[in-house]
Amino acid sequence: MVALAPSADALASTAPLYERVRGVIPPVEWPAFAGDIDAILELKRKRKAVILAHNYQTPEIFHCVADIVGDSLALAREATKTDADVIVLAGVHFMAETAKLLNPQRTVLIPDLAAGCSLASSVTAADVRLLRERYPGVPVVTYVNTSAAVKAESHICCTSGNARKVIESLGTERVIMLPDEYLAQNVAVETGVEVIAWAGHCEVHERFSAAEIRELRERHPGIVVLAHPECPPEVVAEADFAGSTAAMGKYVAERKPQRVVLVTECSMSDNVALQHREVEFVRPCNLCPHMKRITLPKIRQALETLVPEVTIEPAVAARARRAVERMLAL
Q: 109-120 in b/e burial notation, b at 16+ Cβ within 10 A?
């Protein structure tokens, strides 16, 4: 889709939205976004559509067109509450699949089918079946960063925000947790449960190092370090706090550190910084190439054409839905 210069009406109608993102989008760049934003807002009304955006989406999506924002757990919960005819998932494919699992009768769109996840691609349903054969009777806890087919082979799902709660709810001494090896190791320390892990890693969080955190502290004395639990355990050990993106946002909102670094995907810092302008954010972040495949023009095109639509084979969906619903019931 070729971007056209926005009309004067589009610039005028989106001016209040620009005030939300002025701190991270220069005025000269706003016309590049205004036309698509104006069109998306109109298409949402026409299609009776809602846009769910993950915390890693860029500010012009997160703050200007999204109706519901949050981490994977928040989006999963909110997806069950919408009465929209169309759900657009501004995130990655497994998130769109989860929204479809919880809304089987609604049209769920993902603006780019190639918006994947290194964790989701690291494990298959066949892998899970082999693990269950090797460890009979051991419950399988599957991170939401997986395909519906993998969820269908699992007992219950979890997110980084509720992984400890999910594992402790099982009341067992041993669990299989996949696919994120680092999240599994970090949760094992918290729970004391023996966790059999899979060697999957997030290509964003695995690149952070403990040495990088120590260097940040040297260059910015007194900085508060918040790390995502998908980071290696040695990074989490160097941090002042480890938690999901929602938990990191809550930490900043409640404690108002003078200077903070969020050890996670780049756009998270931009989005939280706009909500807490009194806090100084240091940004040694890593970009998620999959999240960045979602753009305003692609969201606009999805609403115009109602494709790409997410579909899941019914038998797989029924089993995967049970694993997600068990998580949401906690």
A: bbbbeebbbbbb
